[in-house]
Amino acid sequence: MRNVGTHSISDAVKATFKCEDERTALLLTRLVDYLHDYAREVNLTHAEWRKAIEMLTKAGEISDEERNEFVLFSDLLGVSSLVDMINSPPGGTESSVLGPFHILGAPDLPIGGDMKKDNEGPTSVVSGIVRDGNGKSIEGAVLEIWQTSDNGLYSNQDPGQDRFNLRARQVTGADGRYAFTTVKPAPYTVPDDGPAGELLAVTNRHPWRPSHLHFIVMADGCQTLVTELFPEDDPYLDEDAVFGVRESLILTYKRRDDLADLPPGLEVAASIEAPFYTVDFDFTLVPAVAG
Ligand code: BEZ
Ligand code: FE
Fold first, then answer.
1. 79-285 CATH
2. How far is CA 70 from CA 56, 60, 100, 208, in A?
3. How are beta strands 177-183 and 113-114 bridged, if at all?
4. Using one digit for the tens of pLDDT, what is the confidence trace for 228-247?
5. How many CB atoms lie within 10 A of CB 104?
6. Where are the domains of the chain?
7. What number does the ligand 1 atom closest to the CA of 154 have?
8. CA-closest residue to ligand 1 atom 4
9. Cβ(195) to ligand 1 under 6 A?
């Protein structure tokens, strides 16, 4: 190893690896290949590599329990969405980014319950059926739902909101149905006051995400689905800062002027006033991978 050169160094590094399993060996040896190829191709300078390490150092410093700048880099560079798409099983609802604002412990909401409470904004009734890959409805599927209020902030970003504002957990009934009232979410900017914001600035990109509802959908024997639903009239659908939009996840909010258009069995039907909006979306879960 005394005579490593700009090409032979790649094999020299890989030869030192003694991984316990094949997958780890593959992941690490290919990482060395791509990193070294990148450095050779762009003729990486010391100053440039120092800058990259400085950005990663700042990412570490700004990250805490509530904020992970490395995830944000992964989101803004499209890696999170790429991994989502690679792992989105055919036949199921498409997945989309989890984002950093999910928190555990959201209150249980009965089917047809009110998640809107006293939040400002047009009342929307979101409902649908959770199904398996054969189209059969799933009783007892668990949905975690969270979204921004109309100021574009999640409850854990905004001291003016209760901790679990616009967050709920709901379990589907015998017919696989979920339903809740909420407000139309608002577009918002991803945090851009750290090194990930520097990346946006240097690439002349904006930090906006189109408005969306987040869902995690779980059921026994099925792969857990992490996804988002987007209103079709959002101005940022074609320029999402984190590349999470999929055609199949874009929804129409239908304006309703008549309470007779409410989905059946809505617990809060009596307190809803027209006009309101309805949104329908069925989730399809695929079987869990064995092992
Ligand atoms: C979100 O949708 O909550 C989100 C996703 C990626 C980065 C920042 C926020
Ligand atoms: Fe979000």
1. 2.60.130.10
2. 8, 8, 11, 18
3. parallel
4. 999 999 999 999 999 999 99
5. 6
6. 1-44, 79-285
7. 3
8. 99
9. no
